[in-house]
Design a protein that fits this description.
Order of helices and strands: HHHHHHHHHH
CATH superfamily of the largest domain: Tetratricopeptide repeat domain
Structural class: mainly alpha
Low-confidence stretches: none
Number of helices: 10
CATH topology of the largest domain: Serine Threonine Protein Phosphatase 5, Tetratricopeptide repeat
CATH architecture of the largest domain: Alpha Horseshoe
Distance between the termini: 40 Å
Mean pLDDT: 91
Number of strands: 0
Strand content: under 5%
């Protein structure tokens, strides 16, 4: 019998057979793609016991190797644990590599989320980046901001239509795949 591959693990993940996927991923320590998915399973307790410290170590290794997803998920873990400055650092590093959700969360933190100090310039920069990459909440937030600053009823109406259209699209995407990065 041949050795299991990352492709085999992805098939198991797609079928939501997490214990089997996790077992396959455990056998692929040199494969960064496999390690990323293993860290996600460990982080969320899918397919076995939750092991946040092991997930953190894998995310950290991936981040150290320049992997944008590793940086994003490490930052997300740090955010959950209240390590705001470290989370922002990794969100921004991941955003530099055009990770869509990292750009959005960089903007949110610079907008004062979780009590982080606001920085209007960085907020606008990262929100524009996230929107240009297709992040639906970023596009929605931009439209809302335009509505609030509208100089006339036509600009306000156009912004309202953008806001409503983006919100409807976000619902459709969420129904199809709630883990879509355009929503995180």
């Amino acid at each position: 019998m041949s050795e299991a591959t990352t492709y085999d693990a992805m098939k198991e993940l797609s079928a939501k057979r997490y214990p089997h996927a996790r077992a396959i991923l455990e056998t692929l320590p040199e494969d960064d793609e496999a390690q990323f998915h293993l860290a996600y399973l460990l982080d969320h307790g899918l397919g076995g016991a939750r092991d946040v410290e092991r997930a953190r170590a894998i995310y950290q290794k991936l981040a150290d190797d320049g992997d944008a997803r590793g940086m994003y998920y490490l930052a997300s873990l740090m955010l959950r644990e209240g390590q705001l400055a470290d989370a922002l650092h990794y969100f921004e590093e991941s955003a530099k590599l055009n990770h869509i959700s990292a750009a959005y969360w960089s903007a949110e933190l610079h907008n004062g989320a979780f009590g982080f100090p606001t920085d209007e310039g960085k907020y606008v920069y990262y929100m524009n980046q996230a929107a240009s990459l297709g992040h639906l909440f970023a596009k929605r937030d931009q439209a809302l901001r335009q509505m609030k600053g509208a100089s006339n009823v036509f600009v306000w109406g156009k912004s309202l239509l953008r806001y409503m259209g983006t919100s409807i699209k976000a619902v459709g995407v969420a129904v199809r795949d709630p883990r879509d990065l355009r929503l995180r």
